[in-house]
Amino acid sequence: MYNYLDFEKPVQDLEGQILELKRLAESGESVDVAEEIKRLEKRASDALRELYKALSPWQKAQVARHPDRPHCQDYISGLLTDFTPLAGDRGFGEDEAIVAGFARFRGEPVAVIGQEKGSDTTSRLRHNFGMARPEGYRKAVRVMEMADRFGLPMISLVDTAGAYPGIGAEERGQAEAIARSTSACLAMTVPTVSLIIGEGGSGGAIAIATANLVYMLEHSIYSVISPEGAASILWHDPGRARDAATNMKITAQDLLELKIIDGIIAEPIGGAHRGNEATIQAAGDQIARGFSDLAGANLNYREHRREKFLAIGRHL
Questions:
Q1: Mean pLDDT, range 209-231, rounded to an integer
Q2: How far apart are the first and last CA of the chain?
Q3: Which of 126, 164, 197, 270 has the lowest CB atom count within 10 Å?
């Protein structure tokens, strides 16, 4: 059984009936129910398809935050080989919200930086729910500088509600660390590709997502602030997060239209959490196409990145 979202209740009811019929069939206490199961499965599939054809921005935010979506380490395991993680910023300590290191992507050496939320209570606490502290961004800068020195392309996997806002993080220079990480992204002379795989929240996301090519999964979100945060500021009511999400243009479809991102990676019907392997494979194919396109264009990658981000908003 899946962890169903509120708006998926019609599908949950149908799939619950299917499970109950299957249990009865296995117990041998009922007449043949194969046809009824088949009919209900079609109804559930059709209902799911209709729901996901017209998700609101707030519903997309819920899908982007689904706990069963593939996380950073799932992509690393599914797409990369010989992954060697690096730990620590050589200044304060280790931050496990940021996973960074070097690996091979389809045989080619790359640097990889990602935000890991964790998949259960223990790992979520260890990774601080994907909310990095300054030492995490300083570790990211360390990996970026090494990638640049050795001429390695970089992949970044973005999935965070935002940088950690705690007192300790602020005391250790959170804003400065984010700014330096963003600057390091912009300064790289190698090709960079970034994927928003869940939430791309605020400077905590842009710090590792300032890439030559930025792609989003179909039901991911990317914004300067969370819908709840925006609602708290604008209306002093976090309960109006739905209104904020609708007006903030946080979906992949909106951001592609605004030319803030470069492409959308399709998810299985019902979201990435209903087809982890297919989602990861599609992401890998898009990364490969992105690197191929960049290589074929014979670009100055640093200048390309600069022009790309300066151009945002010019056409409005």
A1: 94
A2: 45
A3: 126
Residues 76-92 have pLDDT tens digits of 999 999 999 999 999 89
Which pLDDT tens digit goes with each residue over 290-311? Answer: 999 999 888 999 999 999 999 9
Supply the range of the domain harboring residue 49: 6-54
Closest CA to 105 of 141, 143, 76, 64: 76
Q: Are residues 197 and 106 in the same domain?
A: yes
Q: Give Cα 296 to chain centroid, integer Å.
A: 27
Q: What radius of gyration, in Å, describes the C-alpha atoms of the chain? A: 21
CA distance 76 to 263: 21
Percentage, residues of the chain above pLDDT 70? 97
Residue type, 301: Y
pLDDT bracket for residue 16 (50, 70, 90): confident
**CA distance linking residue 219 with residue 236, whole number of Å:** 27
CATH of the domain at 260: 3.90.226.10
pLDDT in tens, 238-265: 889 999 999 999 999 999 999 999 999 9
Q: Are residues 301 and 182 in the same domain?
A: yes
Contacts of 261 (CB under 8 A, 6+ apart): 196, 214, 215, 216, 222, 252, 255
The Cα 86–Cα 98 span in angstroms is 10
Rounded to the nearest 5 percent, the helix, strand and coil shares of the chain are 55, 15, 30
Do 118 and 196 belong together in one domain?
Answer: yes
Which of 144, 117, 135 shows the shortest CA–CA distance to 174? 135
Q: Are 138 and 177 in contact (CB under 8 A)?
A: yes
